[in-house]
Amino acid sequence: MPRSVLPLLRPILSSSIPTPLPIARSIHSSSRVLLATPAGRNPFAPRNTGPKHITPGPIKTPNPRESTTADAASEGSRHGNDQSAGTGVADQWPDYSKGPSALDKASQLFFFTEIVRGMWIVLEQFFRPPYTIMYPFEKGPLSPRFRGEHALRRYPNGEERCIACKLCEAICPAQAITIESEAREDGSRRTTRYDLDMTKCIYCGFCQEACPVDAIVETQNAEYSTETREELLYNKEKLLSNGDKAEAEIAANLQADHFYR
C-alpha cells in the first residue's frame, strides 16, 4: 500500500463503530418485536384495547321474567313499597301450560262455537258471485300477446306474406322451423316448404318478433290437441289455413299490440 494513502485511512481506522441511524434502529427493533411475538398476533397492535366493562367468563342469557321481576322489585324498594319487592314470577306472568279452563271447554262442547264460526264463513261466501266459469262454453279473456297455435298470413289480395328471409328459422331456439325457397318469375323469393314441429316449439314468440312482414304469428287458439304425433308436424298448407281462419282476430291483436312493438 502506498504511503500517501495511509494518512487518508488513519481517521477511519482509528474511529470507533458508528452509531446506527434512526431508521436502522427502528428496523432493528421491529425485527426483535417480530421474533418475540407469538404466531397469530399482530405485533404492532396496542394491547388491552378491548372493553373494560366485560368480565371474563361464560355469558349468561338473561331471563325476561327474572329481569321484569327484578325491575319491579327495584322500583318498589326505591319508592318504599315492600310488597312489590317480594313479588314472584307467578304474579307477573300467568301460567298457560295447563291449557283452556274447564268452562272454556264446556262452552265449546255444548254451544258448538267452532262449528258456528266455520258455518259463518260458508254463509258469507254463499251470497257472493261465483268465481268459476262454465268451460268450455264460457272462456275468460285473453291478452293480445297470448302465444298459441302458429299461423301464416296472406295479404288482402291473397298473396303470401312470407318472403323466405329465414329469420324465424335462424332465431328459433328450439330449431323447430325448416324453410326451403325458390325464385319467382319476377325475381323475388317464395317459400316452397315451411315446416313447423309443434312438439319442439317452446312458444317463445321469437319467430313472430323477427318476421319483418308479420307473416308468421301465434294465434290465441290453445285447443289443438291431437291423437297422433304426426298431426303436430305442421306444413305450409296447414299454417296458411290457420291464418285464413283467424285473420280478423290476428289483425285485431296486432293492432292492439302495435304500441309495444
UniProtKB/TrEMBL annotation:
- What cofactor is needed? [4Fe-4S] cluster
Q: Which residues form the 4Fe-4S ferredoxin-type domain?
A: 152-182, 192-221
Residue span of the signal peptide, if any?
none
Q: Which GO terms describe its cellular component?
A: membrane; mitochondrion
Q: Where is this region: Disordered?
A: 38-93
Question: What's in the keyword line of the UniProt record?
Answer: 4Fe-4S, Iron, Iron-sulfur, Metal-binding, Translocase, Ubiquinone
Q: Which superkingdom does the taxonomy of this entry point to? A: Eukaryota
Query: Could you provide one GO biological process annotation from this protein's UniProt record?
Result: mitochondrial respiratory chain complex I assembly
Q: Name one Pfam family in it.
A: Fer4_7
| MF GO annotations | 4 iron, 4 sulfur cluster binding; metal ion binding; NADH dehydrogenase activity
| Family matches, as NCBIfam families | NuoI, PRK05888.1-4, PRK05888.1-5
What family is reported? Answer: Belongs to the complex I 23 kDa subunit family.
The record ties this protein, via HAMAP family, to: NDH1_NuoI
Protein name, entry field: NADH-ubiquinone oxidoreductase 23 kDa subunit, mitochondrial
Species annotation: Kwoniella mangroviensis CBS 10435
